[in-house]
Amino acid sequence: MTDNQWRHRPAELAALLPAGFTMGVSTSAFQIEGGTQEGGRGVSTWDAFNHQKGRILDGSTADVATDHYHRYPEDVALLRDLGVDSYRFSLSWPRIQPAGRGPANRAGVAFYDRLLDELLAAGIRPMATLYHWDTPIELAGGWLNRDTAYRFAEYTFLAAEAFGDRVDSWITINEPASVTLSGYALGVHAPGETLLFDALPAAHHQLLGHGLAVGALRDAGVTGGVGIANVHSPVEPAGDGEEDAAYAALFDFVHNRIFADPVLLGRYPEVPEPFEELLSVFSEIDPDDLRTIGAPLDFYGLNYYFPTRVAAGAGGSASPDGTAQAMGSLPFHLAEWPEFARSGFGWPVAPEYLGVTLRELRERYGDALPPVVITEGGASYPDAVSTDGSFDDRARIEYLGDHLAAAASAVLAGGVAEGVELRGYHVWSLLDNFEWAAGYSQRFGLVHVDFATQDRTPKASFRWLQRVLESR
Ligand code: FCB
Fold first, then answer.
1. 345 Cβ closer than 6 Å to some ligand 1 atom
2. I need a labelling partner for 424 at 20 to 30 A (CA). Which of 169, 253, 331, 373 fits?
3. Is residue 129 domain-resident?
C-alpha cells in the first residue's frame, strides 16, 4: 500500500474515521523524562539495566532521554499545535513512590500535577498509564514476587487519589506480555532475567496487579475510564507442517491469549498440546485471582505493531533489540515476511493485520470485549533529511495512513471486524526517544529530537497529522 500517498489526501483519511473517534499520541515516562535523579525519584529496574555494560545497543542510557522532565511545557505546546484530542503518557512509579512502598513523594506528585494542568489548559484529555516498565528496584524479585502485585495496587491508590479528578482514562499496565517475554524470559529488557518458560509467574503477577489496580481505581472513585494496554500480534505458522502449527499456537498462547483471556473472560485459555508440562503453572491458579483479574473494564487498550510468523527450529534474522538472538535456544523462531516492507526495526509493515487483530478480538471475546482504543501504533525509520534540513518522513505518513484506514474500515458494517466498537488511535510516539534495548537507534517520533541539543523539530508526519486532525 506504499503508493497510497496519504500525504496528499489528509481530508480523505479524516473522512474515514468513525464519528467521535479519539486521536492521540503516546509516550512513556522512562523513555522521555530524564531527570532520573531529581525530585526525590527512586531507582527503577530500567535505571540499573541501562547502566549495565552491553545491555543497550548504542551503549546509551535514559538519564537525560528527551529531558521532558524539564521541557514538558514545550512538549504540551507541541501537542496543542498538533491538535490531538488525547495524550497518553505514563506515571513513573519510582517518581511517585520511590521505594515502591510507603507514602507518595510530594515532588513527584507535583511534577504530574503540573503536567496534567498544562494538558487540561491546552484542551487535551490525559490518558495516564500507571506502569510502563519502570519497576522500583527495591521491590525484591520484581514481578516474580507476588507481593509486587499488592505494592502496585497501593501505588495505584496513591496516584488515583492525587490525579483521579483530572485523568480522563487510566491504563493499569502497559504490555505485560513484553515485560514477561523480553524482561523475564529472554533478558533483553530489564530486569534481564533469562528464565524462558519459568518466567510465566511474572505474567500472572502482573495480571493480578492489574486486577487489584482496577479495584483501587474504583475504590478511589476516579472519574475517568479504566483499561489495560495489551500488545497483540496475530500469529501464523510459517509452513503447513504440524510442528510450525504447534509452535505458532504456543507463541499465540504466551504472547496474546494469556494476557487477554483472563482480563476479558476471567479464565486462562486452554493450554495447547503438547505443551501441558511446560505451561503447567496455569493449571494451579487460585480462582479468586481470576475473579480479581477479570474485573470489568471501560475500554480495552490495544497496542498493534506487526504480525508474527512462527517456524519450528532455529533461524530468524538479528534484531536491534536482541530478541531474535535471545530466542536462539528455543525450538522455534520468528520467521521472515518477505512480502511486506519493513520498518527501521525490521518489523513487517502489515496494516491489514491490524484488521485481523481486531477480527480476532471480536471472534475470541465477543460481547465480553469492551470498546477498543488503539493505545499504540507507529514505526521507526531512519531520518530522511531534505536539502533544506527538514525531516521528510513519508514512510511514517504512509504507515500511519494505511493503519488508520485499515482500522477504520475493519470495523465498518461488512468489515472484517464488524461489531468492534473502536474508539481511538494513539500514535507511538510524539517524540523520538529512548527505545529500550535499541537505545536511541530507533526513531519513532512525529517530532525529531536532536539528542545533543534537545531541539525538537516537527517532521513532515507531524504536519500531515495536523492536517488530518484539522479536516475532521
Ligand atoms: C511498545 C512499547 C513502547 C515502545 C514501542 C515501540 O512495545 O510499549 O514503549 O517501545 O513498543
1. no
2. 253
3. yes
Residues 98, 103, 107, 108, CA torsion sign: positive
Burial class of residue 275, CB neighbours in 10 A (0-12, 13-18, 19+): middle
Q: Which strands, in side-by-side order, build the sheet including 308-312? A: 235-237, 308-312, 332-334
Of 159, 176, 168, 184, whose CA–CA distance to 228 is shortest? 176
Measure 56 CA to ligand 1 centroid, in angstroms: 15
Asked, for residue 199, whether it belongs to a domain, the answer is yes
pTM, whole model, 2 decimals? Answer: 0.98
Ligand 1 pocket test target in 175, 181, 259, 441 with most atoms within 8 Å of CB: 175
C-alpha distances (whole Å) from 197 to each of 262, 278, 468 are 19, 7, 44
Reply yes or no: is the peptide bond before residue 136 cis, omega within 30 of 0: no
Helix (H, G, I), strand (E, B) or coil at 17: coil
- Nearest-atom number in ligand 1 for the CA of 436 is 10
Residue 1 lies in a domain: no
In sequence order, the 6+-apart residues with CB closer than 8 A to the CB of 232 are: 256, 260, 302, 303, 304, 357, 360, 361
Range(s) of the domain holding residue 356: 6-470
Catalytic residues: 175, 376
For ligand 1, say whether the CB of 236 is within 6 Å of any of its atoms. Answer: no
Q: How many angstroms separate the CA atoms of 457 and 432, rounded?
A: 10
SS3 content of the chain, % helix, strand, coil (to 5): 45, 15, 40
Residue owning the nearest CA to atom 5 of ligand 1: 428
Q: What CATH number has the domain bearing residue 260?
A: 3.20.20.80
Instruction: Work out how many domains the chain is built from and give that number.
Output: 1
Atom 4 in ligand 1: residue holding the nearest Cα: 435
Q: Which of the listed residues 259, 430, 435 should we mutate to test ligand 1's pocket, taking the one with most ligand atoms within 8 A of CB?
A: 435
Please, what is the angle between helix 460-470 and helix 394-410, to 10°? 40
| DSSP 3-state of 68 | helix
Tens-digit pLDDT profile for residues 262-301: 999 999 999 999 999 999 999 889 999 999 999 999 999 9
On whether residue 193 sits in a domain, the answer given is: yes
**pLDDT digits over 19-52, tens only?**
999 999 999 999 999 999 999 999 999 999 999 9
The alpha carbon torsion through 48, 430, 129, 442 (nearest 10 deg) reads: -40
Q: Which of 27, 304, 436 to mutate to test the pocket of ligand 1 (most atoms within 8 A of CB)?
A: 436
